[in-house]
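sorry for the late reply, my laptop died twice this morning and i had to redo everyting from scratch. anyway the thing you sent over, i finally got around to it. pasting the sequence first so we're on the same page, its 941 residues, then the predicted structure underneath. double check i copied it right bc i was rushing
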Amino acid sequence: MTKTDLTSHQWKEKGNEAFKGGKWAEAESCYTNAVSFAEQGSSEKSICYKNRAAVYLKQKEYTKAISDCDKSLEICPNDPKALFRRCQALHALERYEEAYRDARNVISVDPSNKAIQPILAELHDIVQERLKINSQTNTKVSQMLKLAFDLSTDKERRETSMNNLLVLAREKAGAEVMFKEGIITKIHQLLKIEKNEIIIVAAIRIIGELCKDNVERTKAILQAVGVPWFLDLINSRKEERINAAQHCMQVILNSFSGMDNKPDTKPDKELCEKYKKEIDTLLTCLVYSITNRTITGMARDAIVELIMRNIHYTTLNWAEQLVDIRGLQRLLEVASELEEYKYESAMEITPSSRTITSVCLARVYENMYYDALKEKFMKAIDEFIKEKLITPDIESKVRVVVAITSLLLGPLDVGNTVIAKEGIMEMILVMAGTDDILQQKVACECIIAAASKKDKAVAIINQGVNILKKLYTSKDDSIKVRALVGLCKLGSSGGSDAAIRPFAEGSTKKLAEACRRFLINPAKQKDMRKWAVEGLSYLTFDAEVKEKLVEDKQAIKAMIELAQSGDQSVIYGVVTTLVNLCNAYDKQEIIPEMVELAKFAKHHIPEDHELDDEDFVNKRLSILAKEGVTTALVSLSKTESHNSKELIARVFNAICSQRDLRGIVVQQGGAKALLPMALEGTAKGKKQAAQALARIGITMNPEVAFPGQRIMEVIRPFIALLDPDCSALENFESLMALCNLAGVNENVRCRIFKEGGFQKIENYAYEDHLMLTRAATQCLTNLMMSPEILKFYEGDNDRVKYLVILCEDEDVETSMAASGALAMLTANSKKACEKVFDSKNWLESIHYLLANPNKSIQHRGVVVVLNMISSTKDVAAKLIETDVMEILMALTKADAVEEIKIRELAGEALSAAAKWDLIKKNDEDPQGLSNINLDTPDPVE
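ok and here's the structure:
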């Protein structure tokens, strides 16, 4: 029978059957078919709607339930069931006044309805309380509005009133009252004349709170003031105002797309389709404002960051749209801007603008998922360069070279493709050879960026090293320091391989000393000090340079101060230098057999310098941590660049590898900075951050290291380390950290369970790896306190059997953990006591525990036996049939001081057996128990 062969009534009956069986998806489908076949306006259609609403209630899809009840009530007004179901849905959505209205209507239509009576009473109390609160809120809002917007009121009272309004806006009732009182119009008018920054920032934040999680209010606010007004708000030199306006615009986007500000948030596809016009308008306004000549550099950075933050959501589809509306060209305009060119139409930029724009370009390119999109991206880049080079003036050439440098610092593949085009490299080298300072400067920067890979570096060494040496003799320090960095980068093309040195012996030390002089000289501009650090970032592949630099406290201090300045453009140099000092870069595993093969084939074999031995590295880590490098890393971690975050996470992880340095990391805010990096970023970056957090979690009390909600948020990154692609050390440290977390409280254990941690941890308990097995078993022991985990062991599986086997493990720590877990399990589950016998060698395991020379294991064994005997008579009888009773009797006679508790527990086990009449009393026996009483049949009842 096909779908169309069934009538509406038949579909409804099928839906009723599915509903009774708890098959919600099937019931929903049947009722949907019933609705489609029912006659328009018929009572049958009304019933189908309210039945489907019942399904939606079960699935907690309350908005859909309300919609179906509305449709049912349109056909049959005052239907008590439809009213009741709508009341339930409204109640769940905390729309109490509307729910109360429906509850009263149900009573008026069906006075004998007992189901609605308690709900009506509850809603009556809630509504009365809300009326009282709303009345108070109304009064508060009215008072605050009057004071905050009255310019004649004194400054302090106005500031306090506006901040009070901000607090009230965070409450649902307060936000509703304010919106109805027309606060948006008031703020719109006020900000035209307001000079007080505290009041301005609070007003902007109030708008953000009103837009939060409320699409209707957000739409009304945008209709009243428009997106350009928010762009005007962001146009400031005050960081706090810019941050407030940027956050406000993000909240508006979140309302339309269903996101929040959590790291793992994702847009809701249905909402994005519904509000596509509003979301796309927001992108267009942001893109067109990028090149607005009237906005401040800080505002421009904030706008680019806002785009960058949301560009990777495929549901929003901003990346492709940005390319289509010539957004790339606008980003390149910013990327090619120079502070040296001061003319009427110049854009204001900050020292961080080009770095932020480079990261944004990289993010856009990452989202060009297929070749056609990548070609479109490249075409837009080519168009920009051609348009600039049509006019052969110096400014155009300079801008093109600066744009190429930005691409080399962002989407590297794109930058390499552009620089490889005919005539581009030649143009750069010609500009470097001129006497014009500006041309020399930008050409030098481009050469540095282009030497990103060893093969590229070789090509540039051949073509450009003489030019760089010539530029290094320049009297202009800005040229000299850039040429110095270029030479540093080319000189480090061998990486950490001590056998490869492109320049003469001792050259790297001389270059490092030159960089150091620029770095520590307070008279030098920050720009030159920044370049000096970048030079060191290349030279610190050399172990001798590392040792000299790390002992130079003045240079380290200068580098940390530079990092704490907040300038995004210093990140790469500082962090890469720190990565090199900590040896936190990836190292290729050297397999002895492959080394022999390489020698035979006369291939080059990388060599480690003796100063890169573990002892030297650990000493460097200790010096850096004690000099305050963690505070610099926390400051730098605010970057939007995932690659930079990965480098920062690497340094954190290297420092956390030293147990005595972990406290310093937590104390200086390192754990807080690491958490977002563990949740979002590159795969390696997330892994490094997660491992650093795990190391902290092993050493420190988790409640101290991860206070508040943070203790829940670290669980996901820890579980992510329980992956076959991670190293055994990463697995082990994650298990240890999770073990400590599992001992905190039931909420944490439930979160580990919900995140799928239990199954992953369990898998490692059966690994052929001593440390992993031990750590996983210890973790399971702590998890065993959770009722959720007990259900797993009581199920139809071999979990108890495997736990019994683990009790006999050769490793004492593993055996102790497994027997502890079994003791807890048998104490809380009679079924688990029965399942102990599923193990083929259960008796040998019991013997192993009861006769174990380790008193802790023996103690756990006696507890397991006591639990089993106390559980049921059948389990107790099966135990007493064996020689377990004789062992217990022997344990009750032990004289050693450390065996007192074991002796007492063994006596309790025998007493428990006596209660089942499995052994009989003997007055001459000191314990009052002896002899198995199995030969006497049970009395007939």
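The radius of gyration is 36 Å.
thats about all i looked at so far, will dig more tmrw
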